[in-house]
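seq:
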Amino acid sequence: MMDHSIPVIAIDGPTASGKGTIAGRVARELGYNYLDSGAIYRVLAVAALAHGLFPESESDLRKLDALAASLPVEFRADRIYLGGKDVTESIRSEEAGTMASRLAVIPSLRGHLLQRQRDFRRGSGLVADGRDMGSVVFPDAALKVFLTASAQTRAERRHRQLIERGESADLAVILADLQARDKRDTERAVAPLKPCEGAHVLDCSDMSIDEVVNTVKAWYLKA
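struct:
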C-alpha cells in the first residue's frame, strides 16, 4: 500500500526527452529516491527477447503475462538485475527499447507492473519518470511535469548517446523509430502519452540540463 504522505515528483514525456537524466539529477539534489519506470518495461523486454516471446502471439502473450506477474527484477544502487544477472547495459539497447514500447501498450502487462512501480514510494520522497507517472501511477504527485522536445532534437540526443557508447547509429533510422514510438505511445488505449491534468509542460529543446533541473526544482518548491 502506498504511503500518500511521501511526496512525489512525476516527470513524464516521450522517448529521449531527457526525463531520466533530469529526474535522476533532481532526486539526487533533493535526497529523494528515483524511479526509472521505463527500466522496468525494458527489463521485461529483455526477458521477453531472451525467451523468444512476442506480444502479437496469443500463446506468447499468456507467457508474458505470467512473466510480468513474477518478474525477478532487482535495483541495487545504480545497477539493474534480472534473475540475478546484471542487465543494466542490455536494457538500454535499441532492440530492448523498441520491444518495451510494444509491450507497454498491453493493458494486462501494465497492470502487473503497476504495483512494482508504486513500491518505490518510500523514504523522504520520490522522483519518478515515465509515460504515465502523473496520470496513473502517482495521480496525487505533488508536482507533475511533462518534459518534451522536438523529434529531431530527441533523435540527435539519442544518436550522440549511442556514438559515445561506441555503438553504430544511423540518425535517420533513430528518428523514424522515435516517431513510431511516439505514435504507439500517444495512440494506445491505456494511459496514452499526453500531458495529464495539472501538469507543467516544459519544452527543453533549447535548454541546458542545469536549466531544466532548476526549473523543475523551482516549480516543486512552489507546489
